[in-house]
Every structure is written in C-alpha cells, then in structure tokens.
Design a protein that fits this description.
The chain has 353 residues and is α/β, with parallel strands linked by helices. It folds into two domains: 128 residues, Aspartate Aminotransferase, domain 1, CATH 3.90.1150; 219 residues, Type I PLP-dependent aspartate aminotransferase-like (Major domain) (Aspartate Aminotransferase, domain 2). It contains eleven helices and 13 strands. The protein has a seven-stranded mixed sheet with strand order 2-8-7-6-5-3-4, with helices on both faces. Helix 6 links the parallel strand 5 and strand 6. Helix 2 runs antiparallel to helix 8. The radius of gyration is 21 Å and the shape is globular. The structure holds 4'-deoxy-4'-aminopyridoxal-5'-phosphate. 4'-deoxy-4'-aminopyridoxal-5'-phosphate (PMP) binds next to helix 4.
C-alpha cells in the first residue's frame, strides 16, 4: 500500500437493499410504503417556483420543524430535522457517542449502527437478543458510552413496550439513549412523551416509511432542548443546508394531512395482519411484528433458496447472510395485490420442494 493510503480513514460501507432497475417487479425488500404520499405533497411540489432554487434554503428548516413541533405538541427548539433518519442518526453518533466506553446496541438490529460506530471510531458492544428475538432491558444496565436500538426492532419487527424502553432510559441517565422509531407508526408504542421527563433521551423518526416519502429523505429527532442544541451545533459545523427547499415544502405538506397518514397506516397494519395468517398457513414462523415488514422462516425450505427463487419471479425480498438470521427473509408489507402475488409465487416454489 502506498504511504498516503495508510492515512486514509477506511470504512466498510452499509449495504442497502437492492434497487432493481427493471419495471414490473414486486419490491418488498427495503420497507418502502407501497402507497403514494399524501395528495398535498404533489400539490406543494407543483406549486414550487423553480426560480426559488437559486436561493439557499432556510438553514433552520423552520417551516418543517414548526409543522413537526405542532403535530407532536413540542416546542420547535426540541425538534431536529435531517436528510432521512440516517442523517439524523449519523449526526447523533458523532455528537453524543464520544466516550471511551462502548455504546450498546442489539446483535440483530439495523446494521448501519455498526458502520457509523466504525466510521467514527466509537467503541461498541453488541448485546444478543434473546432466543425469541426480544430485547431484554436488563441487558442494558451497564457502564456504557450510550445506547441505541430501533423500536420496533429491525429486521425482526419485534416491539418493546414503552415501560421497558423507559427502564433502559432510566438506567442509563449518564449517557444518551437513542430510540430509533423508524417503524413506530405501524403499531408500536412511541416514547416521544418521555423526552419531557428524560433529558438524555433522543427519539428519532422518519418520513420514509409511514409517510411514504423514502425518496424525499426526511428524518427528525425529538429530545430535550439541550440535546437538540448539541445536535444542531454539530450539524452547523458540518453542513448548514442539509434540508433542501422541496423537502421542506413536501415534508410540511405531508404532516398537514393527518387523516391520510392514519388511514394509510391502518391499511398497512390490516394487510400485515392478514399476511401473517397467510404465512402461517404455508408453514412460516415469525416473531410478532409491529412494523411494515415480517421476518419469516420456513419450517423446511431454506431462506436463501426462497429468496433466489422469488427473485427469479421478479419478487424482491431481503435476505441477510448473517449469523443467527441466515435462514430468515424480511418481507415488506406491500399492497394486498402484491402480497397475493407473493403468496401465489411461494405456493409454486414450495410445491416444487
Ligand atoms: N432506522 C431503521 C431501523 C431503518 O430500518 C431505516 C431504513 N433503512 C432507517 C433508520 C433509515 O431510514 P431513512 O434514512 O430513510 O429515514
């Protein structure tokens, strides 16, 4: 290796789910929402004058921050927005996890946590989930540099009750605890209200899943004024203009339509509950999911083979070649029609076994 290469900060990047280029695929591999954003989003974008793009956006994104603050009944000073929750969480790692002690997260979880920890040279310790893929709050009573976990967890879909999340926050008041609620709107119990009680709690959510806007890249965090100030200071030391003008407009429009939001979440939840029954009928097992995906294992068929055969039929699901979960498939809840096609394809594949 050349000398200059020794000095380079090297990282092993996160691998996102495949984004196939061809049309006519059933895409159940990246937990996107199969429904369009609220009608007001298209309207807001259509009403934008291209000429305004000459000007930098509002660095405080106050229109979007204000809309989120109103919706969740918090002061705008307790809201931080970013380019997807990935941006918000990456910024949070950089800001809050600054100790020689390891941060804690589950062994089976969002694999980006490990990537950020490595990139920022943050020591970490992965806490094994129980046999049934549960987070046991008692495992997080340790002298540590911070805690992060998704609730519901990904890729398992398993949710932790709010009082159990609180137990983890209460027992770690000397460090920052981040609860990644990317999938909370599909049936989990949010701990947003606990951010009033615990200054060290940061709750992160996204517009990518329950608000159908993965392509727009909007995420946010709610926490104490103190945490949000530290986070903003870091952001302004990095890039003042993370939120572009269309994101601010479209995001505010999405928040404004609560009826659409609730209706679409209810639709996903009802399709998920029906899909659980369909999976069970076909010999699949899974821990109960409160997210917009189900993490399934078949009683006899191998996950990798099912993944490949489904792909051959233009149906994309997610397979993780990782310890403990290499015989599971994570299947995003699509429309009922997409799920019917998935089950028909599975019937054909399983009949050949
Ligand atoms: N957290 C979890 C647990 C996720 O699964 C995802 C989606 N990949 C994210 C955060 C990031 O989502 P986004 O950046 O689209 O908000």
């Amino acid at each position: 290796m050349r000398f200059f290469e020794d000095q380079i900060r090297k990282v092993t990047p996160y691998t996102p789910g495949e984004q196939p280029k061809m049309q006519d695929v059933i895409k159940l591999n990246t937990n996107e929402n199969p429904y369009p954003p609220a009608p007001g989003v298209a309207e807001a974008l259509n009403n934008m004058e291209a000429d305004t793009l000459r000007l930098y956006p509002d660095p405080t994104a106050s229109k979007l921050v204000g809309a989120i603050a109103d919706y969740y009944h918090v002061e705008p000073s307790r809201v931080f927005v970013g380019v997807g929750s990935d941006d918000v969480i990456a910024m949070s790692f950089l800001t809050f996890f600054n100790s020689d002690k390891p941060i804690l997260f589950p062994d089976i979880s969002y694999s980006f946590y490990e990537v950020w920890a490595d990139a920022f040279r943050i020591p970490y310790h992965k806490i094994p989930l129980t046999e049934t893929f549960q987070i046991d709050p008692r495992d997080y009573n340790a002298d540590c540099g911070g805690v992060i976990f998704p609730n519901p967890n990904a890729p398992t879909g398993v949710a932790l009750a709010a009082d159990q999340v609180e137990q983890i926050v209460r027992n770690n008041q000397n460090t920052v605890v981040i609860v990644d609620e990317a999938y909370i709107d599909f049936g989990g119990e949010s701990v947003l209200s606990l951010t009033e009680k615990y200054e060290n709690l940061l709750v992160v959510q996204t517009f990518s899943k329950s608000r159908q806007m993965a392509g727009m890249r909007i995420g946010f965090a709610i926490g104490s004024e103190k945490l949000i100030k530290y986070l903003s200071d870091m952001k302004y030391s990095f890039n003042s203009y993370t939120m572009n003008r269309p994101s601010i407009e479209a995001g505010a429009a999405a928040i404004a339509d609560d009826g659409y939001f609730r209706g679409m979440c209810a639709k996903i939840i009802s399709t998920r509950e029906w899909a659980k029954k369909e999976f069970r009928k076909r010999g699949f097992e899974f821990a109960d999911s409160k997210a917009n995906f189900i993490f399934v294992r078949h009683k006899s068929a191998q996950a990798r083979e099912l993944f490949t055969k489904l792909r051959g039929k233009n149906i994309f699901v997610r397979y993780f070649d990782q310890p403990r979960i290499d015989n599971y498939l994570r299947v995003t809840v699509g429309t009922e029609e997409q799920m019917e096609k998935l089950f028909t394809a599975l019937d054909e594949i399983l009949a050949e076994q």
